[in-house]
Amino acid sequence: MSEEEGRRMEPRIVYREYVYPREDGGAGPSRELRLRIPEVLDSEYGMYVWPCAPVLAQYIWYHRASMTGKRLLEVGAGVSLPGIMAAKCGANVILSDSAALPQCLENCSRSCAQNNLTTVPVLGLTWGEVSPDLLTLPPIDIILGSDVFYEPKDFEDVLVSARFIMERNPNAEFWTTYQVRSANWSIDALLHKWDLRCVNVPLREFDADRECLAGSALPGRHSIQMMIITMKRDPLC
Ligand SMILES: C[S@@+](CC[C@H](N)C(=O)[O-])C[C@H]1O[C@@H](n2cnc3c(N)ncnc32)[C@H](O)[C@@H]1O
């Protein structure tokens, strides 16, 4: 390979910081949590932070007191801002993205390295596929998914994977943010089909109803929603 070709193949990476001030004061660097997220300047999905991610990270930050020791799996993690936040707040985190997209799995690992989280496992988990990695997952309390409902053709596969994990972990919750891209898209029928229920969490409840979060203007004016999906407990509901 020529030097020129090598240069062309090297990913161009930019680093963005997300800054979370601690209201409880503290001194020096502990006055805030800084997450450093590498983004690849490439048109491939998952190579940068999507507007839903700062909103889900804000939800985790808001609930950080309960994160210690929780077992979390992020699906479709891309550059993994929510998962990185959870790990920094004391959760045991596994990051995952499509097994067919090794460059996205590299992103997960790169984000971990930038935040000194070298022991966080990164797995290839493709929605809707039952793979050995899915079958051998350890117990999970919370599944994270930021902007994983962005292609209607994938909605059912995302829910099937979540449902599979919840069957093995009946108290698990799926925390997910999505961007309203079309008034015609809905997961209601699929939730019903897979015996799942969903509660919407208004953004104002966790201080995320702002155009700028953690120093990032990404949420902007996008219409972003947060929901928590769980297994239906009462078969009559
Ligand atoms: C819209 S991006 C969101 C990325 C990241 N969660 C965020 O919010 O910044 C969708 C993510 O889903 C991943 N993805 C796409 N198809 C997938 C599949 N079939 N199984 C698992 N992950 C998939 C992509 O690689 C990408 O990281």
TrEMBL record:
Keyword Cytoplasm: no
GO process terms (BP): methylation
InterPro entries: Methyltransf_16 (IPR019410), SAM-dependent_MTases_sf (IPR029063)
Molecular function per GO: methyltransferase activity
Annotated coiled-coil segments of the chain: none
Assigned keywords, A-Z: Methyltransferase, S-adenosyl-L-methionine, Transferase
CC annotations in GO: cytoplasm; nucleus
Keyword Methyltransferase: yes
Family: Belongs to the methyltransferase superfamily. METTL23 family.
Protein name from the UniProt record: Methyltransferase-like protein 23
Organism per entry: Engystomops pustulosus
Classification of source organism: Eukaryota, Metazoa, Chordata, Craniata, Vertebrata
